[in-house]
Amino acid sequence: MDSTSAEDWPDIPNVQDLVALDRQALSELSDCNSLANIIAWNTKYLGDQGLVTLQLKQIPKQDAQHRAGFGKAVNRIKTTLLAKKEEKQRALKEEELKRSLAADALDVTLPGRGVPRGRLHVATRVMREIRGIFADLGFQVYRSREVEDDLTNFELLNMPPHHPARDMWDTFHTTTPGVILRTHTSPGQIHVMRELCPEPIRVILPGMCYRYEQITARSEIQFEQVEGLCIGARVTMADLKGTITAFARRLFGQERQVRFRSSYFPFTEPSIEVDIDWPKEDPNADRLTKGTGWLEIMGAGMVHPVVLQNGGYDPQKFSGFAFGMGPQRITMLKYAIDDIRHFWANDVRFLQQF
Ligand code: DAH
Predict the structure, then answer these.
(1) Which of 98, 124, 151, 299 has its CA 20 to 30 A from that of 157?
(2) Cα–Cα nearest to 32, from 79, 101, 106, 95
(3) Residues 192 and 142: beta-carbon distance below 8 Å
């Protein structure tokens, strides 16, 4: 019933006025293109003083003959306009919502962006694992300095200035003569001995070391080491072997075989290197062990009498063992990492894997 013609209307004297009012209201409603327009239209036609409302107020004033017909007609106009208005209002509301969504594309119903979860660096994880194993074996952690002097890094470890063994460590020197970055954690042995002498010692010394080396897949200028030192009245090579075996099996698996080879370090006598057997099932086994089936994990030995003495201990009364290993190397083995440079490159794609 969009519009009505005079024939649809009852036979009343001012029917033309009503028809015109109805048409005008409908046409203006269809011109409304905002909710504000609709409110104005509503006031004009259906409000307290609205044109349709005024006609409603005319009903009682009609003569008795036409009153019912007039009343019906005006009420019909009002009801129809009200329904049309609501329909139009709904459509406009929907349109406005669509427009505002398109204009500023903020959809509050979208799920938010997740906060990425952090995790421990793989070097930290393995270091904690190593510390945990040695803690169970009764070793305390002793932290030693990274900036050392030549005396402690070399000389007190039984390497005098022109000792050829110094060639094993390419050193970062500072502008202050004799002050260097430690090339290994072994100088920590001297610090801990001098601090605790004459008490027995059972410590590990974890920390960063620095070497002036060409950076390759197998060598970095910085890397971590874990040094171990045990000193007491009757410490023997058997204690060293037992400790290392227990450690290697906890870290790599209870079925691991451990092999001790004789070797040379200036600060231990005798010196050994420790290998573990590598599972043949591992497709990388041949490459890692160069076909031997064995993989080196650390250097070790009985603390040299000169080093004991430099630490304040009487070699007649005390003996001890020491070992040193590189956790990055061990981590590479454990997780089949093929390049040591990944450790400090801070590439999250690498770090996320652990
Ligand atoms: N300091 C040695 C290195 O950096 C590792 C090492 C070997 C430490 C034997 C020791 C040891 O305590 O007994 O190559």
Answers:
(1) 124
(2) 95
(3) yes
Ligand 1 centroid vs 157 CA: distance in angstroms? 10
Give me the amino acid identity at 131: R
Instruction: Give the residue, 214 or 174, on which the prediction is more confident.
Output: 174
Confidence check: pLDDT of 55 > 60 = yes
Q: Is 188 in the pocket of ligand 1 (CB under 6 A)?
A: no
| 176 CA distance to ligand 1 middle (Å) | 26
**Is pLDDT above 90 for 99?**
no
Q: Give Cβ neighbours of residue 261 (< 8 Å, ≥ 6 apart).
A: 272, 273, 274, 275
Question: Looking at the structure, do residues 159 and 23 belong to the same domain, yes or no?
Answer: no
For residues 233 and 274, membership in a common domain is answered with yes
Q: Residue 321: CB within 6 Å of ligand 1?
A: no
Residues 345 and 311 in one domain: yes
pLDDT value at 284 more than 60: yes
Q: Which domain holds residue 150?
A: 122-351
Least confident span in 19-28, 178-187, 282-291: 282-291
Residue 130 has pLDDT above 90, yes or no: yes
Distance in Å, CA 149 to ligand 1 centroid: 18
Does the CB atom of residue 186 touch ligand 1 within 6 A?
Answer: yes
Torsion of CA 212, 214, 220, 222, to 10 degrees: 20
Pocket probe for ligand 1: among 158, 204, 227, the residue whose CB has the most ligand atoms within 8 Å is 227
| pTM of the predicted model as reported, rounded to 2 decimal places | 0.69
In terms of domains, do 211 and 273 share one? yes
